[in-house]
Specification:
CATH architecture: Beta Barrel
Largest sheet: 6 strands, antiparallel, barrel
CATH superfamily: YaeB-like
Shape: globular
CATH class: Mainly Beta
Distance between the termini: 51 Å
Strand content: 25-35%
Number of strands: 10
Length: 184
Amino acid sequence: MTADEKQPDTYTLRPVGIIKSEIEQPALGANKDGIELNAHIDKVRKQHHWIKNLVSEIEIHPEYEELLQGIEDFSHILLLYWPHLIPEERRQLRKVHPMGRQDMPEKGIFATCSPARPNPVLISTVRLLSREGLTLKVQGLDAVNQSPVIDIKPFVQMAHGADNPTRPEWMQQIHRELQGDDTA
């Protein structure tokens, strides 16, 4: 395609599978004013710790079985999925308070991990515990049950890791609070 040719306005994504998880509702919700925690921070903190050990299953559609060949050789995978419980009208947000926290400065959606985004493609790095036919068992996935899987990639440190990444203080504070270490 040359620079003069117009790119399409839309693209088609086809789910390759579905997530089977004990998580029925996301920790974050989207409303017309931004995002909000669906529970008290103490409950979200407990859920965060619970998710670290949670085992979920990824059911791959049969037509994609051969694409799994060799995935079991990796300890971790990148899972791209669609947050299906976020309605279209909630994906128009441009700025939010991170985690719905009014005490945090408002940031552009692309500077946050908010699920309410123009193209709500979420990504998680998870431990791959096993592959049994079309089923991948993973640990540490924070996706809601029945979320469509868009893609799977092996986690490769050299390609997906970053040396000495930095993050703003507000994000560090959120992570400390989720870990239960408000003093660090």
